[in-house]
Amino acid sequence: MPIDDFPDQTYLIDSRGLGERLGAVTLIDLRPAEDFSLGHIEGSRHLDIYGVSLNDSSEAPLKAFLPIFRTLFGARGVSLDTPVVIYDHETGERAARAVWLLAVLGHPDVRILDGGTQAWTATGNGLVRLTDAPPAADPVSAPPTPPPFRGTPNPELLATRFDVHQAIDDEQSVIVDVRRASEHLGTERRARRAGTIPGAVHIFWRDHLDEKGALRPADEIRDLYASRGVTPDKTIVPFCHGGYRSANTFLALKSLGYPRVQNYVGSWAEWGNRDDSQIIVPNAPG
């Protein structure tokens, strides 16, 4: 789906746009390593951060968590002066979380490839395979490790559990549970406690994607969220289990022009494993 109808394309790029800028961006492939080896967009660097999550969003752990990604992105050549395009096999949760993290760390131009490699190949573009590994570099002449990425952080794009506690009773905030219905209803347990956050609106994250895994037309996505009271005049706090699927919702809403969206970094992996979290089980007796 072309992205021209989205009012804010800060975090979006389509296959046509990437093709026009291919030599002028840093490309990062967030798919599993085996997918990257079988075929990737030429010039891409691989990064898999799927297992790097945070289950305590208080100040000290958060300050230790974010620098990990400064190092990982820096090692892939990410710098402030070059735009970054991150992709998955679709407009997926892995790529979305990486885009969101890099935006939180302060990169001014980081985008997700809408539709991912599926859209890229569907428009006639090819993928390249990894060739045989080159000879090991001479340690004396090997280039130094790139420095960590340095930018001015954007903490307003991130929510901690303290922000979520405040949002529960705030009429100007809407918490969005983007997990599967079974997780939301508490019939699927992925943490010590099951259920959802009081007042949370349930909108499954894939509901704003089409059958090819790309963003649906902007008007359809806008109507979907507005019908559940998720409107641009509110502060929106999406969450999932580890901040991946909710990062995808973050990108969709920001692309619609929603000014205040904060992805809950710890999500249910934090909230559902704490005794002090407010939890409800929808439709449960009592």
Describe this structure in words.
The protein is of the alpha/beta class. The chain is built from ten helices and ten strands. Helix 2 links the parallel strand 2 and strand 3. It is globular and about 60 Å long. The termini are far apart.
Describe the structure using short key phrases.
30% helix, 286 residues, 5-stranded parallel β-sheet, alpha/beta, globular
Please give the radius of gyration in angstroms: 19 Å
Structural shape: globular
Structural class: alpha/beta
Report the span from N to C terminus.
Answer: 45 Å
What is the averaged pLDDT score?
A: 94
Counted beta strands: 10
Roughly what percent helix? 25-40%
Q: Note the run of SSEs as H and E.
A: EHEHEHEHEHEHEHEHEHEH
| Low-confidence residue ranges | none
Summarize the biggest pleated sheet: 5 strands, parallel
The total count of helices amounts to 10
Lateral arrangement of strands in the main beta sheet? 1-5-4-2-3
Give the amount of beta strand, in percent. 5-15%
Give a brief description.
The protein has 286 residues and is an alpha/beta fold.
Write the layout of secondary structure elements.
Elements: E1 12-13, H1 15-21, E2 26-29, H2 33-38, E3 45-46, H3 59-75, E4 84-87, H4 93-104, E5 110-113, H5 116-122, E6 158-159, H6 161-168, E7 173-177, H7 181-185, E8 201-202, H8 218-226, E9 235-239, H9 245-255, E10 263-264, H10 267-271
Parallel strand pairs: 1-5, 2-3, 2-4, 4-5, 6-10, 7-8, 7-9
